[in-house]
Specification:
Blueprint (H helix, E strand, L loop, with lengths): L1 H10 L3 H10 L14 E6 L2 E6 L2 E5 L14 H9 L9 E3 L10 H10 L4 E5 H11 L11 E4 L6 E6 L2 E9 L9 E9 L2 E5 L22 E5 H5 L1 H11 L3 E5 L3 H14 L12 E3 L1
Parallel strand pairs: 3-4, 4-5, 5-6, 10-11, 11-12
Antiparallel strand pairs: 1-2, 1-13, 2-3, 7-8, 8-9, 9-10
Helix pairs in contact: 3-4, 4-5
Length: 282
C-alpha cells in the first residue's frame, strides 16, 4: 500500500506532460475517437471528415467556390492544405469527381505536398484535371500519393490500407448534362461502421443495382437531398441501399428550411449537419 502511494506521488508531476503529449499527437488538441467508434465532422456541402483511431479520411471537402452551394471558408481551405488543426493527420483524401463544388486541383496538389503521408483516392477523370496542375507542381510525389480508380461506368474497384477498407463505385453523375461524368461512390469500412457516400450519383437503377448494397448492411448513407424529396430517389434508397441511418448532403440551406419537415416525414431519423465543423459520433 505504501509503495502504491509513493508511486502515485512520484508520477503526479509528470501528468501534465503526459497530457500535453497526448494533445500534441491528436488533431485539434482533442482526444481522437478510439478504433471501433466513428466521428464525423462536417466541412461543407458534401464534404466530411471521418475519424476512427488514427485513421482520418477527408472526402469532397477541399475546393474554392461551390457557387450556390456551401464552401469551406478561406481559413478552412488554408488549414486543410497546411494540415493545421483541426485538420491535422489526415491520412486519406477521397474525391468523388472533378466538379468545382467538390474539388479544386491546385488546393489538392498543395495539400499532398504539405502532407506527404496522405493519399488521394479518385477516378481517372479527376486525375486528368489534376495532371494539368501537376506539371506546374514538381514537388508532388507521384504516383506514391495517388490511387487512381480506373473502373468504367457502373464498375467498382477496392482499396485497403491500414484501418481503411473502401470500395469505389463508378456511378453516373446526376443530370443529362453530366451523363458522361463518373462520380465515385465510396463504400467504407471504418470505426466498426459500414459507410456509403454517393457523391453526386443520379437515381438510375444501374447506378446501384450492380453492387448488392442491401447485403452490405450499411450503417450510415450520405445522400444528397434530391433523393429524399423525389419519389424515384426514395425508391432507390428503399430498394437498393436500405441504410440504417441517412445523413443529408449537398443541401442548399435556403431550401432546407422549407423542405426539412417534408424530408423528416419520409425519414424521421435523418441527420443534418447545420454548421461548419459540427461533429457527431456514430
Amino acid at each position: 500500500m505504501k509503495k502504491s502511494i509513493l508511486l502515485t506521488l512520484l508520477l503526479l508531476p509528470l501528468l501534465p506532460l503526459l497530457a500535453q503529449d497526448q494533445f500534441d499527437n491528436n488533431p485539434g488538441h482533442a482526444p481522437m475517437p478510439p478504433a471501433g467508434r466513428l466521428e464525423v465532422t462536417y466541412v461543407a456541402n458534401s464534404g466530411f471528415i471521418f475519424t476512427s483511431g488514427t485513421t482520418r479520411v477527408i472526402l469532397d471537402a477541399l475546393y474554392l467556390d461551390g457557387e450556390v452551394w456551401e464552401s469551406p471558408s478561406k481559413k478552412m481551405q488554408k488549414d486543410i492544405v497546411s494540415g493545421s488543426a483541426p485538420f491535422k493527420n489526415l491520412n486519406f483524401m477521397l474525391v468523388s469527381h472533378y466538379h468545382a463544388d467538390h474539388f479544386d486541383p491546385t488546393l489538392v496538389s498543395r495539400f499532398l505536398v504539405n502532407n506527404p503521408r496522405a493519399m488521394l483516392i479518385t477516378n481517372a477523370q479527376t486525375d486528368s484535371v489534376m495532371s494539368k496542375v501537376l506539371k506546374q507542381d514538381p514537388q508532388l510525389k507521384r504516383p506514391d500519393q495517388m490511387k487512381i480508380i480506373k473502373a468504367g461506368m457502373f464498375g467498382a474497384e477496392s482499396f485497403e490500407s491500414g484501418q481503411l477498407n473502401v470500395k469505389c463505385l463508378a456511378q453516373r453523375h446526376m443530370g443529362k448534362e453530366d451523363a458522361k461524368v463518373i462520380s465515385l461512390g465510396f463504400l467504407m469500412d471504418l470505426g466498426g461502421k459500414k459507410i456509403l457516400h454517393i457523391g453526386d450519383a443520379g437515381w438510375e437503377d444501374e447506378n446501384f443495382a450492380p453492387y448488392n448494397l442491401p447485403d452490405e448492411h450499411i450503417d450510415i448513407a450520405f445522400i444528397h437531398y434530391w433523393f429524399l424529396l423525389d419519389c424515384e430517389g426514395r425508391r432507390i434508397i428503399d430498394t437498393y441501399i436500405k441504410p440504417k441511418k441517412i445523413v443529408v448532403t449537398h443541401i442548399p440551406y435556403d431550401e432546407l428550411r422549407r423542405d426539412y419537415k417534408r424530408i423528416k416525414e419520409y425519414y424521421p431519423d435523418v441527420e443534418v449537419f447545420l454548421n461548419h465543423l459540427d461533429k457527431k459520433i456514430f
